[in-house]
Design goal:
- The chain is mainly beta.
- It contains seven helices and 19 strands.
- The chain is elongated and about 90 Å long.
- The two termini are about 25 Å apart.
């Protein structure tokens, strides 16, 4: 093993010019040996120490822990390495990740090394089923298309590049295929090309407590990542400033939604004259979040938070836009996430206040709307930890108009508001970086039974592979 590790490390360390006249530290490596230069360079850099301080013993096999110690020392010299050399050190760090962790060296620390570029991504294959059903609006009655056969299957692939510019600045760029449905009968060449879903710069300052993020993010969850994610989880162009310590976090930002209405979200509350125009893209929002973290022992990681969003349709200046179905004026919400050992209890409340003029123009419903969500989870599935799993049950009670449109971070699809529904699910990591999930709704009812029939139950199952 030793020859392979030493050869790889020697190839990474371009420091020969600084140690060309260094003294030979090992009595068993003659100056005319083919390995002399590399051994002297590695010893001078502090990567290898030999045996008893004077013998190299090049024919002796070394343990994985000794190899990991050499890799850890190489990591300390990453700033002297080229892009190709850093790639080799990264590869060795991945190979000896467990041993490095036991030595107290976090492989993730490589991400903070200047000039490091890391590629990641994921692939998802998804199945969703819901039978068709009848919806009513006023005197009209229409079929709400379900998801069956080929229409139940889709896939998505995403790739991300994370580049460390310096010890405080990181650039992230990513592309996605978006969800590609198997029901299409056209040629593959007719499908849209992948597009940029993330392109941002993050600058960390103020003792690593402050972070300024500018650009496009692939997922903006109203309420933050610890909330349920009822509202929106797709492309968002914004500038965001966040302060966080061990007890408190404050976030403020301003941006614009950039994803069209997803095909898995149906707006059942648009009059026929406005059909097909349900979208949140082009809507701007200023937002703020306050979060507190608490708990120790079994309750460690618990949190509470409040948040607010103010919405403006771009170009409308608060006035009605022909064919525009977006009616939100502002939104506020609160969540609480309580950890009890392997259990987590999440409660989330949101209220949407309507733009009265716009809401009146599109329908007779002008009342503000709210949603209550509760979720109880046992265990924690981690895609990097084989055989980890969790199981959960949730309850959602959403008034008509509580969902503002666009997308959602929920597993649910189709009708998102004017419902009362339960759901259960299981997530299981069956191999490293490979997770299987299954979800099922039950007890679903329309809250306004006069306007819409009860929706059919939903089934979802998916495989996610990270790389």
């Amino acid at each position: 093993m030793k020859s392979k590790v030493v050869a790889a490390l020697a190839a990474t360390m371009a420091i020969g010019a600084t140690c060309a006249f260094a003294a030979n530290p090992f009595v068993d490596v003659p100056s005319d040996s083919w390995a002399y230069k590399s051994v002297v360079e590695l010893a001078d850099a502090g990567i290898i120490q030999g045996v008893d301080g004077q013998y190299f013993q090049g024919n002796r096999n070394i343990t994985r822990y000794e190899a990991a110690e050499m890799v850890a020392k190489a990591m300390a010299h990453m700033d002297k390495a080229s892009v190709e050399q850093r790639a080799l050190i990264n590869k060795l760090a991945d190979e000896y990740a467990d041993e490095l962790n036991n030595l107290g060296v976090r492989v993730s620390a490589l991400e903070n090394r200047v000039g490091n570029v890391k590629l990641t991504g994921d692939a998802r294959i998804r199945y969703r089923y819901q039978d068709s059903y009848k919806s009513e609006k006023g005197l009209d009655k229409a079929d709400v298309a379900g998801k069956k056969s080929d229409n139940s299957w889709d896939y998505r692939v995403r790739v991300r590049a994370n580049a460390q510019v310096n010890d405080r600045t990181k650039v992230t760029y990513g592309i996605t295929t978006d969800a590609r449905n198997f029901s299409s009968n056209g040629p593959a060449s007719s499908e849209n090309n992948p597009y940029t879903d993330i392109a941002k710069v993050d600058y960390n300052f103020g003792g690593n407590n402050w972070n300024l993020s500018v650009g496009r993010t692939d997922a903006y969850v109203i309420g933050g990542p610890r909330a349920y994610g009822y509202q929106y989880g797709d492309i968002f162009d914004r500038a965001e400033l966040k302060y966080q310590n061990d007890k408190f976090a404050a976030t403020a930002g301003y941006g614009k939604f950039k994803a069209e209405a997803a095909d898995d979200v149906q707006d059942l509350y648009i009059e026929d004259s406005l059909a097909g125009t349900s979208t949140i893209d082009g809507v701007k929002t200023g937002y703020g979040e306050l979060e507190g973290f608490f708990g120790g022992g079994r309750a460690a990681g618990s949190a509470i938070g409040v948040y607010y969003n103010d919405f403006t349709r771009a170009g409308s200046e608060g006035k009605e836009v022909a064919g525009d179905s977006f009616y939100g004026d502002d939104l506020w919400g609160a969540y609480a996430s309580l950890n009890l050992g392997k259990w987590n209890l999440l409660g989330n409340y949101e209220k949407v206040n309507f733009d009265k003029d716009r809401a009146t123009a599109r329908s007779e419903k002008t009342d503000d709307a709210s949603v209550w969500i509760g979720k109880l989870t046992y265990g924690k599935a981690n895609i990097a930890t084989p055989k980890s799993w969790d199981a959960w049950v949730e309850y959602i009670n959403a008034q008509d108009g509580a969902f503002i449109g666009g997308s959602t971070n929920s597993w649910r699809f189709g009708q998102m508001d004017n419902i009362e529904s339960w759901g259960v699910g299981v997530d299981y990591t069956f191999a490293k970086n490979a997770m299987f999930s299954v979800m099922q709704s039950f007890g679903t009812n329309a809250k306004d039974g006069k306007d819409i029939n009860d929706p059919e139950e939903q089934t979802r199952a998916q495989f996610v592979f990270a790389f």
